[in-house]
Amino acid sequence: MSGRTCLAIVLAAGEGTRMRSARPKVLHAVAGRSLLGHVLAALRAAGGTGIAVVVGPEREDVAVEARATMPGAQVFVQTERRGTAHAVLAAKAAIEQGADDILVIFGDTPLIRPRTLETLRAAIAGGAAVAVLGFRPADPTGYGRLVTQGAELIAIVEHADATDRERAIALCNGGLMAFDGKIALKILERIGNANRKGEFYLTDAVKIARDMKLKAVALEVTEDEVSGINTKAQLAATEATMQQRLRQAALDAGVTLVAPETVHLAADTRLGKDVTVEPYVVFGPGVTVEEGATIRSFSHLHGAHVGKNAIVGPYARLRPGAKLEADVHIGNFVEVKEALIETGAKANHLSYIGDARVGAGANIGAGTITCNYDGAAKHRTDIGKGAFIGSNSALVAPVTIGDGAYVGSGSVITKDVPADALALGRGQQTVKEGWVKRLRGLKSLGKKKD
Ligand code: UD1
Ligand code: MG
Predict the structure, then answer these.
(1) CB of 55 closer than 6 A to ligand 1?
(2) Which atom of ligand 1 is nearest to the CA of 87?
(3) 130, 320, 400, 407: which sits with the fewest CB atoms below 10 Å from its CB?
């Protein structure tokens, strides 16, 4: 929005009792990000907005999440839950700072699009004192109804207070509103609580603005954008909608999703051009995959980076801090955590690589384990360029394997191995000629005795 300042007030003081959870509602996650995080991300994308988050008493966890997502956010506590207008006024000090536009957003509507926020603000820039988002839900029970006259919004009537005629109105209040910052406080402070619930309804702002001879408008959006989450079932439905959006965005960006409906993405997953994701892959938060890489079926990635043309899976697990450079191969039943795997290195079968560096072109044999934890502390393993680790080796950290070194299979390596050296860390093989034959003979003798 060119030149205009904006304050967004995010209401997040609700208890969310219908979630039946110890966690506050706005901290539940969709696509790996909290509901509050989604709302704040939409605000950030819309740009140029100061943010005030209204939280309930003793909800330091919500305040922490708000500040973590938006370091500049101001947090206000609504000490008693007395209605949406009362909640907005908890942020009075922020309103008094005098932004041109004031947006009010509920913290439990993660599907809101930045563009919609801009449209609401455009209505205020265009001369309205109050702008409201309307939608037509399949079942309008419980929502405020928008009473209109032509293009004008006359009033919002809450379901509990509506007459039968008003309840027949299909256009409902989505809950998000914008105000002209110059008169917002004057309107908000006139709101009373003479209604069925005895609450201070933000929705009364429309009628009050009209009484002040100011203009109110409604903008219609689709239901998914404004649907608030109250229950675990709605949380799951929202997850499904969000996944569809994320998959579509990935496809539009040139990613190949072989079976899109089976791929689970996080809100911040970044997939480059010509990345192929096979069926049944899960992306937790914080994953980037560069151009041309392939993520094969049944892999689980979280907090990981996959370089160009790398191949991951099937059945691979990349945990936080896994950094794969270009052309790396991580195969089936390989787990990587907090480890840099340099260009072209391979770990194709049944391995754990944690707190490590694997040098360029190194080959990690099947069953190799970096023993990073001694029961008290974590230690690092450093594997040099072009090293070869034979199958079923245990590298007991802290330990360094030099460039080009060769570790014989089945080794337990507890001391550093110099570059280009061969290390065998296993017991000597013993062979007893004819031993089995003799054993069989003893057994058959035993049988004869019976
Ligand atoms: C509200 C609207 C209704 C609209 C509906 C859309 C009002 C009066 N009604 O009703 O017209 O159709 O949303 O979903 O605004 N909150 C606080 N403190 C409070 C009360 C609420 O922070 O004291 C927060 C809640 O956490 C929630 C939001 O405000 O994020 C909305 O409150 P809620 O009780 O869900 O309002 P509804 O009855 O759904
Ligand atoms: Mg609600």
Answers:
(1) no
(2) 18
(3) 320
- What residues sit around ligand 2, an ion, with C-beta below 5 angstroms? 228
For strands 369-371 and 394-396, give the pairing: parallel
Which amino acid type is present at position 371?
Answer: C
| C-alpha pair distances (Å), 34 with each of 170, 249, 360 | 31, 20, 38
The whole-model pTM stands at 0.91
Spatial distance between the Cα atoms of 259 and 441, rounded to a whole number of angstroms: 60
Nearest by Cα to 1 from 178, 121, 97: 121
Positive/negative CA dihedral, 121, 122, 123, 127: positive
Q: Cβ neighbours of residue 160 under 8 Å, at least 6 residues apart? A: 195, 196, 197
Cis peptide before 314 (omega within 30 of 0): yes
Is pLDDT of 448 > 60?
A: no
Instruction: Please name the residue ranges forming H helices in 301-360.
Output: none
CA distance readout (Å), 275 to 130, 253, 288: 45, 10, 11
Residue 389: other Cβ atoms inside 10 A: 32
Share of the chain above pLDDT 90, in %: 92
Q: How far from 438 is each of 434, 447, 449, CA to CA, in Å?
A: 6, 15, 17
Q: Where are the beta strands (DSSP E) in 325-405?
A: 329-341, 346-358, 363-364, 369-371, 381-383, 388-389, 394-396, 399-401
> How large a percentage of the chain has pLDDT more than 70?
98
Distance CA 101, CA 405 (A): 65
Q: How far is the CA of 143 from the centre of ligand 2 (A)?
A: 8
Parallel, antiparallel, or unpaired: how do β-strands 317-318 and 300-301 relate?
parallel
Q: Choose which residue among 84, 88, 159, 234 to substitute to test ligand 1 binding: the one with the highest number of ligand atoms within 8 A of its C-beta.
A: 84
At 268, phi and psi to the nearest 5? Answer: -105, 15
349 has catalytic annotation: yes
| pLDDT average, residue stretch 53-72 | 94
Distance CA 282, CA 275 (A): 15
**Gap between the Cα atoms of 435 and 365, Å rounded:** 32
Q: Within 13 Å, how many C-alpha atoms sit on residue 336's CB side?
A: 35
The pair of three-digit structure tokens given for residue 402, joined into one six-digit string: 């030099």
Q: How far apart are CA 34 and CA 310, in angstroms?
A: 30
Q: Which one of the listed residues 28, 300, 305, 349 is annotated catalytic?
A: 349
Length of the chain: 450
